[in-house]
Amino acid sequence: MSGLSRDLIEKCKSKLIHAKTEILNRVRESRTDLYNSEDAKGGDEGDQTLRALAESEFLSMHERLRKQLMEIEGALGRIEKGLFGVCEETEEIIEPERLLAIPWTRLSIEGAEIRESLGKKYAR
Predict the structure, then answer these.
(1) What is the per-residue pLDDT for 14?
(2) Are 82 and 2 in contact (CB under 8 A)?
(3) Is 93 helix (H, G, I), strand (E, B) or coil?
(4) Gap between the Cα atoms of 49 and 96, Å rounded
(5) For residues 53 and 70, what is the distance between their CA atoms, to the nearest angstrom?
(6) What DSSP assignment string belongs to 28-63?
(7) Which are the contacts of 5, defined by CB distance < 8 A and separation ≥ 6?
(8) What is the DSSP letter of 95?
(9) Class assignment of domain 6-122?
(10) How high does pLDDT run on average in the chain?
């Protein structure tokens, strides 16, 4: 594998599957809540504005969760390919503590700092 212990990889895989399940449940629940609260399509301007704000908030949350779900799927794919835990920036092993905290991460702390400094450099 990637130089990480099998136990660590299995713990991360378990966390990834749990996080994936939580995200899918949150999306389903929020979708149900949004559509159940729209029973009354009418209402005054205030009701319509609140409904539009709720839809906008739902779409923003849905996009964030979709991106996180893609990261989780990517991490599960890296586990299957034997590439899990290798920093995309430095090609070094990602710190085990970091992987346990954020199992879908693709960057070590050093790699994240490099990306951040490059982002600041080119943001000017």
Answers:
(1) 97
(2) yes
(3) strand
(4) 47
(5) 26
(6) HHHHHHHHHTTS-----HHHHHHHHHHHHHHHHHHH
(7) none
(8) P
(9) mainly alpha
(10) 88
Residue with tokens 């994240």: 112
pLDDT tens-place string over residues 48-58: 888 888 888 88
pLDDT band (50, 70, 90) for residue 30? confident
Instruction: Note the pLDDT of residue 120.
Output: 77
Residue the block writes with tokens 């346990």: 100
Dist. CA 101–CA 8, nearest whole Å: 12
Residue 38: pLDDT band (50, 70, 90) is low
Can you give the residue ranges of every domain in the chain? 6-122
Element (H, E) at 101: helix 96-101
Asked if residue 45 has pLDDT above 50, the reply is: yes
Reduced to 3 DSSP states, what percent helix, strand and coil does the chain have, rounded to the nearest 5? 70, 0, 25
